[in-house]
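User: Assemble these into one structure.

Assistant: Restating your components, then the assembled model:
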Amino acid sequence: MRMVDLIELKKNNGEFNKEQIQFIIDGYVNEKIPDYQVSALLMAICFNGLTAKETALLTQAMEYSGDIIDLSMIEGVKVDKHSTGGVGDKTSLVLGPIVAACGGKVAKMSGRGLGHTGGTLDKLESIPGFNIYKEKDEFIKQVNEIGLAIIGQTASLVPADKKLYALRDVTATVSCIPLIASSIMSKKLASGADTILLDVKYGKGAFMQTKEDAKVLAKTMIEIGKHCGKDTRATISNMNQPLGNAIGNSLEVIEAIHTLKGKGPKDLEELCLKAGSTMLVQAKLYENEDSAYKALKEVMYNGQGLKKLKEMVKAQGGNVSYIENIDNFEKANVMIDLTSKQTGYIKTLEAKALGVVAMKLGGGRMTKDEDIDHRVGLVLNKKIGDYVVSGEPLLKIYARDKVSDELLEELYHAYEIVDEKVDRPVLIEEILK
Amino acid sequence: MRMVDLIELKKNNGEFNKEQIQFIIDGYVNEKIPDYQVSALLMAICFNGLTAKETALLTQAMEYSGDIIDLSMIEGVKVDKHSTGGVGDKTSLVLGPIVAACGGKVAKMSGRGLGHTGGTLDKLESIPGFNIYKEKDEFIKQVNEIGLAIIGQTASLVPADKKLYALRDVTATVSCIPLIASSIMSKKLASGADTILLDVKYGKGAFMQTKEDAKVLAKTMIEIGKHCGKDTRATISNMNQPLGNAIGNSLEVIEAIHTLKGKGPKDLEELCLKAGSTMLVQAKLYENEDSAYKALKEVMYNGQGLKKLKEMVKAQGGNVSYIENIDNFEKANVMIDLTSKQTGYIKTLEAKALGVVAMKLGGGRMTKDEDIDHRVGLVLNKKIGDYVVSGEPLLKIYARDKVSDELLEELYHAYEIVDEKVDRPVLIEEILK
């Protein structure tokens, strides 16, 4: 078999069989096939796509390119959840605890933030002492004991994805649905959970720009899951504006704590309860979403969820006093309001623009090796559909030092304020399975 | 400027400007842009193409990536000719001498053969002593003195094409019209001639499979020529069967000598006279093709053309006695006939299959570094439209040693013999300008 012939095959819109896909992934991981052949193939895939069967075969070849996490020593159904990434998305920090408080087994491997999107690991590390590195045995023990652990992906998990993603990033082949789907699903499958819930986001702050694309991506991943015998479902949710109000690492942890006290933003609460009820049904712990929803809402309001978060923080070496008293979190040096120059209804609030500003403030990273400042970020006072009077604050900026006029301008440009009343956007469009 | 953004631009069917194309070519030649980004771009170009303007800009950027040959010290209009390659294509060996004998200035840089197609340099080197390496001054002196020189391309000619071609070869991005056009034209333009005649071949033995594709390629190259102010024309010729009868290096030189005595195969003679008359009109030496055709036919039949070939061979160190007496050429060890098992008309005669066999016999090379045997090859007795009786020889094989039954089978499969009369194919479809 020659790689050049396989590239030609895909260029001519042919379909790969299992051996051919295995040859490509093995050859690439073992450095027998060079980057320049793989990038040409990736571009051909961007144009001609992959069939459902090819996508599943690619995902499996990638999944088995490295270590497979065996969670069979954890009792019960292991539920996993993955968000395609957005701005202000602290769902896992709320969802993990409430699902675990209702009996779910959440053994989650998470990632770091890049560009305008944040990452769960970075958020957790704003709690002093919190350790995202755990040996496998410890990880399993923790989930068996408290039902919840969130750790970093090990370097040996899906090495094929690491190589492919790095190559896609520099060859303009990131935005290709079968490649995105196989990248996400290979990691989820290798992580060993029994069920997978995907939160596929669409809109200006997300990977997928349109609802339609998000649905295609979701369906592609559900198909892969089915092919691999895993109960896989997906929420399709709006990321035209940030989720909740806080953007920035410790700011988002604080917002998650508020939410676990029943005092969080309603959109975040709603997403966590809806996604959580699907997960509990997937885990076969509840018969239907309604009963699961009620149970989740109960633990959200009675402190059981918050207790679960504290248990996890303690088990992973974090300082629990920060969860108990949010005033312990170190404050940013500079806190200033961005005030509205207009009176009217907020029509747009560009999630991506806010994510970029949060990154520029030091809360995110452009490249993988940058350090981040956990204190900085933004907290929104007004979101789409809200009425604002000229002079009222739109948001508060938490910064290391003086905020440039340029950045204020950039932030203000993220808002569009109009005279006519604007409807609040629907957050969850659909739940697919 | 970032290469990844330029790949994205072409992926989204955008158009490059001059600076962007210059950035790509400079970056690639200077090794600032890696192979894997260029191969992704090449694949995107295979799908989305290049506009006429982009193709011309790419060609010029490639042309100026290395040395430009200055032929201004040669008096008169310098005419050049290029064939897109085929099987049995010894046109240059006949065309160069007859055009020079009619006053044309032919300062030609040629290439070697690869795969099933032969190369003019390999053919010339079957004449003992013939030297394809000449210093620039010597090259110019020779053309000024005798009107004709055929040498190898220097390593410093269009280095961008060398790198790009090598990459295209292993990434399934060879068959893309704007890339083929810019590759050919950048070398022709850098070689410094005033006019260019392209022989664009189509059919089973050619790069372009269909007449339509050949015409698109020809028009693309003519457009580039116009953009660069060079009189560029193209013949569209049939390569479903080999040109002439001989395939193999010394066998083709011998056939060229026959043709320069007015005793060559009629298809080869016709292509040389038609292409030659276009070149002489391009050189403004004749007012129209008809008068040029007559003059060329005269020098083909009166020995002036053959004399010109001898002058070139002598000027380039070759042993002229081989031209004077073809029996001097060393014979292949084994000569056997492939006889027909059927009676009927020859309907197809797969040029590519014959080219591949000639290569396997040792007359061509699979990779650039292989040695070749100048003696071996094939000489056809029967071509498309000919009537053959069972037991009659279809062709003669010239081999180093015993020919395997497998190879004989392979050769026989190149023929299709039918009962119904078959028309002889038209060789030159059109001459475009």
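The radius of gyration of chain A is 22 Å.
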